[in-house]
Amino acid sequence: MTDGRTLQPSAAIRCVKEYHPPLGDRSGLRLDFNENTFACSPRVLEALGRISGGDLTRYPEREPVERCVATHLGLKPEQILLTNGVDEAIHVLCQTYLEQGTEIMLPVPTYSMYEVYASATQATIVRIPAEEGFRFPLEAMLRALTPATRLIAIANPNSPTGQAARREDLWQIIDAAPQAAVMVDEAYFHFFGQSVIDLVGNAENVIVTRTFSKAYGLAGLRLGVVAAAEEQMRWIRRAISPYSVNSVALACLSAALEDDAYLHWYVDEVLAARPVFEAALQRLEIPFWPSRANFVLVKIGAKHGAFVDAMRARGVLVRDRSSDPGCDGCVRITIGAREQTQQGIAALEESLAEIGWLGVEG
């Protein structure tokens, strides 16, 4: 209780679920955050070099770059909104559609920030556990729909599991919930190759988000994009700051989009490295879930913490996901370029030997 003389945050903020990214010293091989593990396009660095001091005195303008992104995605400029990373997109969608008395549906485990931003809206969070093998829980989600369902967030492929929902399953959700915004988060689209972005504008409740932090290697610039029907975008734009995407990021994005050769090179490296890494896991008899993204979720068991520490001691960062629903003892490992993947495999073998790993129950 307060006596009225002490500054207090709002009730909504007191309800927000805290999120503490395990950052700190991230020197070494970064296989913990699913970033591009190599570099951004050289054209991005050239664009950075062309930015003048005078350029930084002006407020940023999204619209010209949004037109470029719309052309790149085959959509209308009115259907596109650039955001400060997909995290801002999630925040804006929660602010646009959620309030007390409404519900957000989340198939879990999934990306943590959906729940973080939803918790500030006083909406009810409906968590639907994945089926065995982390399969998409279509039937359970359909049963859980109510008139209060206002936002459904589906990461496809999903993090941390790497599993993907089928297009026909997504369509069933979209068709069954016309009262809800169905956000399909395609952060890992480039490593999967399948999308529902063609449904934007054809189904009014479809909203697709993408990031430029993964394949494009622009995590430090914080760039994401929301694609939605024009009628919905009118409301979404009301919830966002007009200057949240900075001018440096905007100047670099066009250069990144123009360099298809670099993007294809990096994606091809990851797609070639992924089966190599999964083959090493099979050889070492480490349980894992086949992935459609640029990471693999593995089951280490009781020694998961010691394993993460042993990998860090060898200069390789991996992400402990044991606190996620259904992920006890699990660690997520990013797949980078082929040479980096070989380094990761070598560190993996040494780390397991150091901690005396004898299997999940060992």
Q: What do these coordinates show?
A:
It is a single chain. By secondary structure, the protein is α/β, with parallel strands linked by helices. The chain has two domains: 11-37 and 261-355, Aspartate Aminotransferase, domain 1, CATH 3.90.1150; 43-259, Aspartate Aminotransferase, domain 2 (3-Layer(aba) Sandwich). The chain has helices spanning 11-14, 42-49, 63-73, 85-97, 112-118, 138-144, 167-176, 230-238, 247-258, 260-283, 304-313, 338-355, and strands at 29-30, 80-83, 103-108, 124-129, 149-155, 181-185, 206-211, 224-228, 288-289, 295-299, 316-317, 319-320, 330-334. It has a seven-stranded mixed β-sheet with strand order 2-8-7-6-5-3-4, with helices on both faces. Strands 9-10-13-12 form a four-stranded antiparallel β-sheet, with helices on one face. A two-stranded parallel ribbon has the order 1-11. Helix 2 packs antiparallel against helix 9 and helix 4 packs parallel to helix 5. The termini are far apart.
